[in-house]
Hints:
Elements (H helix, E strand, L loop, with lengths): L8 E6 L9 E4 L29 E7 L2 E7 L4 H21 L2 H4 L12 H13 L7 H13 L6 E5 L2 E5 L4 E5 L9 E5 L6 E6 L14 E6 L2 H14 L6 H10 L13 E8 L2 E6 L2 E4 L3
Parallel strand pairs: 2-7
Antiparallel strand pairs: 1-3, 3-4, 4-5, 5-6, 6-9, 7-8, 8-13, 9-10, 10-11, 11-12
Helix pairs in contact: 3-5, 4-5, 5-6
Amino acid sequence: xxxxxxxxxxxxxxxxxxxxxxxxxxxxxxxxxxxxxxxxxxxxxxxxxxxxxxxxxxxxxxxxxxxxxxxxxxxxxxxxxxxxxxxxxxxxxxxxxxxxxxxxxxxxxxxxxxxxxxxxxxxxxxxxxxxxxxxxxxxxxxxxxxxxxxxxxxxxxxxxxxxxxxxxxxxxxxxxxxxxxxxxxxxxxxxxxxxxxxxxxxxxxxxxxxxxxxxxxxxxxxxxxxxxxxxxxxxxxxxxxxxxxxxxxxxxxxxxxxxxxxxxxxxxxxxxxxxxxxxxxxxxxxxxxxx
Length: 291
């Protein structure tokens, strides 16, 4: 999703009631990346449904358009804030030299000497035939989670709808096709399956750029860049509910690794909603969640 446009920062620890219930995250499509001002509303109501378990804390990191909600075993806010500044600095520096990386709606080749996040975004979006910034929110979630997973084996990084998760226990990710509706559908992820990234795109929710009419596309992969790029591309394909089968077929084509282009994994599952109908393929074990 195009949301994390790189150029003020905020961190905060939020006290959360700890429960023994399932840890449920709800997500929506992120804000638009193009020409958005620094994010100045740090409240996202769906995050109130995220309940860290005993031994976990939740905190928020905001740096301009990057707005992370994090659940971890310890307060990593200062370290994560520094990393977010660093990642955004790499993106801004690269786009200063190669502006098309930030504006193109088609894949952009990058130098093999570019930073890891730049290369990862370019590889993922090349496979899905979308512009590099279609993967930026998923990339930041992934790179933050990978950097701190050893310090916190239970770690959830949610970036406005794009989530990277490490966990030693089962989790449920709530799917929210309308931000004004109660969450009624969740995705179960077993402890053995982590790390997992879940990224979303929508033509009707939020301000992200979509060329389709889909209400929601949620993609599961071990690669956050790929999940984000694929969610954007698949949502672009959804012009009506008649396109749902085509979207699932395309997702299956992207399920295999693409080692030639640096991708050692593919898409593991997708949920697509359009015209009030839902289609599901792959490792997407759904469950009901009380509102």
